[in-house]
Design goal:
Blueprint: H1 19-26, H2 36-39, H3 42-47, H4 52-70, E1 94-101, E2 106-114, E3 117-123, H5 135-144, E4 154-155, E5 158-159, H6 162-179, E6 182-187, H7 193-205, E7 210-213, H8 220-230, E8 245-249, H9 263-270, E9 279-284, H10 289-293, E10 296-299, H11 302-317, H12 327-343, E11 347-351, H13 356-369, H14 387-398, E12 402-408, H15 412-415, H16 419-425, E13 431-436, E14 448-451, E15 460-462, E16 469-472, H17 485-493, H18 499-507, H19 516-522, E17 524-525, H20 539-547, E18 555-559, H21 573-577, E19 585-586, E20 591-593, H22 595-601, E21 605-607, E22 613-622, E23 625-634, E24 642-646, E25 675-677, E26 679-691, E27 707-709, H23 710-715, H24 718-721, E28 726-729, E29 732-735, E30 753-758, H25 767-776, H26 783-787, E31 796-801, H27 807-815, H28 826-833, E32 842-847, H29 856-860, E33 866-868, E34 874-876, H30 886-890, E35 897-898, H31 916-919, E36 934-935, H32 941-954, H33 966-970, E37 976-980, H34 987-992, E38 997-998, E39 1010-1013, E40 1015-1017
Parallel strand pairs: 6-7, 6-12, 8-9, 8-11, 9-10, 12-13, 13-14, 18-24, 20-23, 27-40, 30-39
Antiparallel strand pairs: 1-2, 2-3, 4-5, 4-14, 15-16, 16-17, 18-25, 19-26, 20-24, 21-22, 22-23, 22-26, 28-29, 30-37, 31-32, 33-34, 35-36, 38-39
């Protein structure tokens, strides 16, 4: 342990505010060393009697002095506990089970805390915890430490006490009742039985008041359809693990469709077992995660999607309905429908079309199939918003009928398509209140801005699916002067006690006889419910109405990006810098256009000399509403006649300057319909994107992504579909893995870690990327640095497009190159392979340090900063690193990152690490790296060592599954499996021997400890 003793040279140094001390600290050598007197003068140097030895002394001393000054580390002062809390052991993490739902994202999670600070989100893996954290939930821990949060309540923009706020709201309620005006509670979907009970009590005490539920991104049409058939307002919770055939019409169920969290079940059927795997058809406009994973993807307009749905309904049910489907798609749709009918109960159809008639047909088709993946029991309660009720409220506010409007969890000034009109109409409301985490677009213009705690500081309960029950518990005391919306309701209702007391008393009705402590410890009660009653509607009328829909020209398809979702966490730098899985662009939203339409409109993308991506600007007009200067991405796979644009960007209020990026797509969300008729024209200028993947294709490098078809996988030997690279040894061909330039060492003693990545199960969701950020203190560098290829992500998810229709045809094309310079020659051919197909196949591949047993980085480091551990990890000693970057040049996987700047406490990089609040998220078990050193994936050595030490302290053998890395623990699809290959009973040891296993660039001979599995497509 280093000494805390302070050494000083003069009494003046004890005065930390002394300008003299500061000057000395910044200028160690007060007088310049007079080397220039003779080194800078040719005559004096030639006449000098200075020996070569003395010359080297001078040069060596000045260089060493500068180096030492540059490497001087910062001093951190620690303050000990006066009285140590019993629950906290310094250096030991505590975990709390909780659940999260913010109206858009939800998950059953564990919260890791250190010395009372929540620092990381992990998945709750207890039985019944079915909702895993996505990238946004993992990043939400940083949002709690956002210095731009609303820190206290405000009345008319000025700080106020909670008693004043309470009195103001009660007076507003009384005034509205006296004047005969409406009292409205406007909230997001709550999914909280206790909160909904409080609201019901509020309405009972205030007759005439009402509760309106508003979801920024609406699922109202699907809710309306389900309510019409089954009598309850909910969404079906599909289980894709029970389906052998999946047909999706415009539903990105691996993204945010119906809240997401479907990847676990989906991945179960996508890994080939006993010669079988599920088959997936995707009909869509924008290229999505679901489309990227599909075996057969067909790009089509939403108009054609509606017609496809009608045709599928006719084939499945035998109903006589006519479809106006474009003939170009007829064969593919018919094939999908016939296979779906043949699959019967093992088939399932889903759709994301925001049309009640379309959603009615989805219910009809799954009923006809008697689909096992479709169940009306345990429906999702995470969307309850009604477009009609929200539209009526807007009209009432504009007409001055609302006297008191109390909002919670919503930001309508930003998210409504007519947000500015709503902002003006708020002046008609005498008392407007916003319970908000931030002083956002709405909270900044209301009468009362009530600061609420983050969910990690709050008590609550959740019923995410019907019959299930989960608790949200605080993991830290509130950082600011905040109160929950529920506490306000209790006060207005005249209830005594705290919300915790109310919650505990109310919970007994939902926990199935389990004790409060048991549910609190587990985080949830995995209850069940009976199937919904009813189940019929006039499906033929719905089919005919849908068939009668008209094509209205160029379609704008609005969607939510994996990074920012609905935009609640727009001030979170982890999410802003997270590269979109499809486009690999961060720090922006953009309009996606097909190559066909881009050529017609004169819009282009080009990669410039520094590797950055530049693109045109476009002006969009929807029903008279215009968005100017929207950047353009020419997107392979975008349906002709459609363009895409994501929500969540374009925010200005309560954001740091660096986070004010993009355009507000909600402005075009007319009628809460995610498909709009748009006119688009090219604008002047050129936009600079921060894109981390300039290479758009595999370029024929077949040993990076290996894939095959299920037919070949089942009928051919593994040497055919997983060929081993061959090299020449003594003029004979041998497998590259059998040849070794190194003397190997015994790896069978102790632990030896491997990470397995299954390309069939990986959906590219990016949860692992954000989890790695949180666990390993990975810095955010900003758009300008990302554009210079200086992003610091320890883990990247490479996205590959095929230049032909399939990767197999890419390889055929490569093999037919003739070596000449023409179009069919190798140079011309590889140039063509840089251009993705109009509808390419897509493959995702997570890449981190491969922890090579024969690591080329280790041999070139002049100071032995990178070395190999006995447990298989390639280790970095940051204090030894002098930043030569030889290791990065010698790494064939390009996974090492160089700290060009100090990203911590640097005003040039204002990404939450310049204030004490933001730095509370840092993991004390991992160094915060300084400028001038290399960093990379450590295979979370701090986590593996903790597991070893814990088992040793408890005197037991480590169980399989205990060893985890941040990425493997975050992976909800099961694509990443981590473990000890010396434990022959472990899952990772089994995967190491699997026929699908291969290593990246095996012919290089690096012998990595990260293994991949060949991607199999069920085409």
């Amino acid at each position: 342990m280093s000494s805390n003793k302070k050494y000083w040279k003069s009494v003046e140094e004890l005065n930390e505010n002394s300008s003299i001390v500061e000057a000395l600290r910044n200028n160690e050598f007060v007088e310049e060393i007079p080397t220039d007197e003779f080194l800078g003068n040719k005559d004096s140097l030639s006449n000098s009697s200075t020996t070569r030895r003395d010359f080297l002394k001078y040069v060596g001393f000045s260089t060493a002095a500068a180096t030492l000054a540059a490497c001087e580390g910062p001093v951190h002062k620690s303050i000990p506990y006066v009285v140590q809390p019993e629950q906290i052991i310094p250096g030991v993490a505590d975990f709390y089970a909780t659940s999260v739902f913010d109206g858009f994202d939800f998950a059953n999670i564990l919260v890791k805390t250190r010395e009372g600070r929540p620092i990381k989100i992990e998945n709750n893996t207890i039985a019944g915890a079915k909702f895993a954290a996505n990238a946004r939930v993992h990043a939400s821990v940083l949002s709690m430490y956002d210095s731009m949060r609303l820190k206290e309540p405000k009345i008319a923009g000025k700080p106020a006490s909670w008693s004043d706020v309470d009195a103001k709201i009660k007076a507003g309620i009384a005034d509205a009742k006296a004047s005969g005006k409406q009292i409205v509670l406007l909230t997001n979907t709550l999914a909280s039985p206790s909160t909904e009970k409080l609201i019901a009590e509020f309405i009972a005490k205030n007759p005439g008041s009402k509760h309106v539920v508003y979801d920024a991104v609406s699922s109202s049409e699907a809710l309306d359809a389900f309510e019409a058939v089954y009598g309850e307002r909910a969404l079906v919770d599909y289980d894709f693990g029970k389906a052998s055939l999946i047909v999706s019409v415009g539903a990105d169920f691996l993204g945010d469709w119906q809240g997401g969290s479907y990847d676990t079940g989906y991945a179960q059927g996508r890994i080939p077992r006993n010669g079988k795997m599920s088959r997936h058809f995707q009909f869509e406009s924008n290229m999505t995660l679901s489309g990227a994973a599909a075996d057969k993807r067909v790009a089509m307009t939403v108009f054609n999607q509606k017609q496809a749905l009608v045709k599928i309904y006719g084939i499945i049910t035998g109903a006589a309905v006519s479809s106006n489907l474009d003939k170009a798609f007829d064969a593919d749709v018919t094939k999908a429908a016939q296979q779906l009918k043949a699959a019967g109960s093992k088939g399932v159809l889903v759709s994301g079309i925001q049309d009640k008639n379309a959603q009615l047909l989805v219910l009809a088709i799954n009923q006809a199939l008697q689909s096992e993946a479709f169940s009306t029991a345990g429906t999702r309660q995470i969307r309850k918003g009604s477009n009609q009720q929200v539209a009526q409220l807007i009209a009432d506010v504009q007409a001055g009928k609302v006297g008191t409007l109390i909002m919670s969890g919503v930001n309508p000034v930003y998210t409504l398509p007519n947000g500015e009109a709503f902002k003006s109409a708020l002046k008609n409301v005498k008392t407007s209140v916003a319970f908000s985490l931030k002083e956002d677009e709405t909270a900044s213009v209301v009468t009362v801005a009530a600061a609420v705690p983050h969910y990690l500081e709050s008590w609550n309960d959740l019923s995410l699916t019907k019959g299930a029950y989960a608790l949200t518990q605080p993991t830290i005391r509130p950082l600011f002067n905040t109160k929950q919306f529920q506490e306000g309701l209790m006060s207005w209702n005249g209830d005594a006690g705290t919300y915790y007391d109310y919650l505990k008393a109310n919970s007994a009705s939902y926990t199935g006889g389990l004790s409060w402590n048991k549910v609190l410890h587990d985080g949830l009660y995995a209850g069940a419910s009976a199937p919904a009653a009813g189940g019929s509607a006039d499906y033929s009328a719905a089919a005919n109405a849908l068939a009668g829909s008209k094509s209205t020209g160029l379609e704008l398809v609005l969607y939510t990006k994996v990074g920012l979702g609905d935009g609640q966490q727009a001030n979170n730098p982890w999410l802003q810098e997270f590269p979109d899985p499809i486009t690999r662009v961060s720090w922006d939203n953009y309009v996606t256009v097909s190559k066909f339409d881009a050529d017609k409109l004169g819009m282009t993308n080009e990669i410039v000399a520094n590797g950055g991506l530049n693109g045109s600007y476009a002006n969009l007009v929807v029903d008279g509403v215009k968005l100017d200067n929207v950047p353009v991405i020419v997107q392979p796979g975008q349906a002709k006649g459609t363009v895409g644009l994501s929500f969540g960007y374009g925010r200005k209020a309560a954001l740091k300057e660096e986070m004010k990026v993009g355009v507000n797509a909600y402005a075009l969300y007319k009628g809460f319909n995610d498909v709009q008729t748009v006119s688009i024209t090219k604008a002047g200028g050129e936009h600079e994107f921060a894109c981390v993947q300039g290479q758009k294709t595999l370029m024929g490098r077949g040993d990076i992504i290996k894939e095959t078809t299920l037919e070949i996988f089942n009928t051919k030997d593994a040497k055919v579909w997983n060929p081993q690279p061959m090299v020449s040894l003594d003029h004979a061909e041998v497998e590259a893995t059998k040849v070794d330039l190194w003397e190997s060492f015994d790896r069978s003693v102790g632990h030896h870690f491997n990470l397995s990545i299954d390309l069939n199960a990986c959906t590219g969701c990016g949860a692992c990327v954000i989890a790695c950020h949180a666990e390993n203190n990975v810095p955010v560098v900003g758009k300008s640095e990302v554009r210079r290829s200086r992003d610091m992500h320890w883990l990247r998810i490479d996205r590959y497009y095929s230049s032909e229709e399939t990767f197999a045809k890419d390889n055929e094309k490569k093999e037919n190159f003739n070596g000449l310079f023409g179009d069919k020659g190798s140079l011309g051919g590889f140039g063509q392979m840089e251009h993705a197909s109009d509808n390419p196949q897509v493959a995702f591949q997570p890449v981190m340090c491969q922890h090579c047993n024969h690591a080329p980085c280790e041999t070139v480091c002049p100071v032995a900063a990178t070395s190999h551990g006995r447990q298989g990890q390639n280790q970095m000693a940051y204090n030894r690193c002098v930043g030569t970057r030889y290791c990065a040049n010698n790494c064939p996987y390009k996974v090492r990152r160089f700290n060009w700047f100090l990203y911590n406490k640097n005003s040039e990089f204002d990404y939450h690490m310049n204030d004490d609040l933001g730095r509370m998220v840092l993991n004390p078990d991992v160094n915060v790296r300084s400028r001038g050193v290399m960093e990379k994936c450590s295979m979370c050595i701090q986590m593996t060592q903790l597991t070893i030490l814990t088992a040793k302290r408890e005197g037991r053998v480590i169980k399989d599954g205990e060893f985890q890395t941040a990425c493997s623990a975050a992976c909800s699809s099961g694509a990443m499996i981590f473990g000890d290959v010396n434990d022959k009973e472990s899952k990772v040891a089994e995967l190491l021997e699997d026929d699908r296993m291969y290593h990246l660039l095996e012919h290089v001979g690096t012998k990595p400890n990260v293994i991949y599995h060949v991607k199999v497509r069920n085409t």
